[in-house]
Amino acid sequence: xxxxxxxxxxxxxxxxxxxxxxxxxxxxxxxxxxxxxxxxxxxxxxxxxxxxxxxxxxxxxxxxxxxxxxxxxxxxxxxxxxxxxxxxxxxxxxxxxxxxxxxxxxxxxxxxxxxxxxxxxxxxxxxxxxxxxxxxxxxxxxxxxxxxxxxxxxxxxxxxxxxxxxxxxxxxxxxxxxxxxxxxxxxxxxxxxxxxxxxxxxxxxxxxxxxxxxxxxxxxxxxxxxxxxxxxxxxxxxxxxxxxxxxxxxxxxxxxxxxxxxxxxxxxxxxxxxxxxxxxxxxxxxxxxxxxxxxxxxxxxxxxxxxxxxxxxxxxxxxxxxxxxxxxxxxxxxxxxxxxxxxxxxxxxxxxxxxxxxxxxxxxxxxxxxxxxxxxxxxxxxxxxxxxxxxxxxxxxxxxxxxxx
Length: 405
Fold this sequence. Notes:
Elements: E1 16-20, E2 23-31, E3 37-44, H1 47-61, H2 74-85, H3 91-108, H4 118-131, H5 134-153, H6 180-201, H7 208-219, H8 223-227, E4 234-235, E5 242-245, E6 248-250, E7 258-260, E8 270-273, H9 276-287, H10 312-323, H11 326-333, H12 344-359, H13 362-369, H14 374-381, H15 392-399
Antiparallel strand pairs: 1-2, 2-3, 4-5, 5-8, 6-7
Helix pairs in contact: 2-3, 2-5, 3-5, 4-5, 6-11, 7-9, 7-12, 12-13, 13-14
């Protein structure tokens, strides 16, 4: 009688199901890439789920390559792109990738990767730019390029169609920023909001919008960087006061704000001197905290009502309400801005623009914002900023007082 046929590499043997602690359990054998027979075990809510878990485990042990070919749908490739990025990028970046895929898949998910020629990809991106925005088209381009890159790695495509497209030179507009009058109107509305919220919510916690926006206007920090500041990062007793920027506030899919002890790059770590109004914010925030735990070095410098870390979405939501206020809309209209222009980044750009205009040096704004490339500051953040150029005294000395009378 012939013996049992040996398992091939990556092949999953007969699955034996059972129930353990109320869950479906499954056991099976497979042969790994080295030829060794391995015993596998998995639990789940159904036999189908357990079978899939065991099959995935067998595939990993055999270094099985994902079955991808020119007839694979774009929906599959975009999902593979997300899997590829998971664990390789920060949680907030992965969330952005997933958001892009969520609206890109219904648009092109049924097309096969072999049908995505450069001409077709170009047409898709043009449609996205027209129907959504230039920013959405850039996000789609990144997602598509990553998906096509995986297809090339898996020998399903010979080249990445995105690489065959010429980049469209963007029309650079002067970055928008608030003027001092608009800042004054905004501050007035924030105070009015505090008074209204305070009547219903009591003291504490209602000041977070004013605290965050004042620090942004005084430092040029991102919302996530402001909310990540801890008591130990803030010095208010040095001559001008300063903050140490070393992390950001992330919001994983759990929804709870979590401090991330890293920035996009090490070069972004910096000390920023604080103007008086920003220093007073931190002093006020400390004075509202009565619990000892809220005064500890690692506690948030700008805490919520219960001393907890505040997620950025809470501040964004409050800003959206304010920007629709008729008085704010009228103040914005004076310089051609509309309510939708009023974003958290507008406050960041305002700080950068005011510094660049006052100093005549764009590099001052670059250092404030923590940009590695000054072109980023110039093209996307600093508005009307003029360099102080020329040497009038030298020319006076060389050329004299002008033509003789």
